[in-house]
Amino acid sequence: DSSPDNNEWVGHSCRELGELSLSNGKLEKALEYLNRAKENLAIAGMADWDAKGYNELCDKVTQLKAHMKKLTYP
Length: 74
Fold this sequence. Notes:
The chain is mostly helical.
C-alpha cells in the first residue's frame, strides 16, 4: 500500500535503520537507508509537519555523502 501513512512509518523505520548502520560503521548501508527514509518521508509530507526534522535528515544525508566521497577520493 502506498498511502502517505505507510510512507511515514517506512520512512521512520528506514531512518532508524540508517542511524543503527551509521553507529556500526556501515556507511554505505546507512546512506541507503537514510535516502529511503528521506524519499518516504517526503511523500508523507514531513517537510510540512516537521520541517526541522526533515531538514536535519536531509543535512545528515548530505554530510554522509560528502564524508563518503572524501573516503573514496582523498
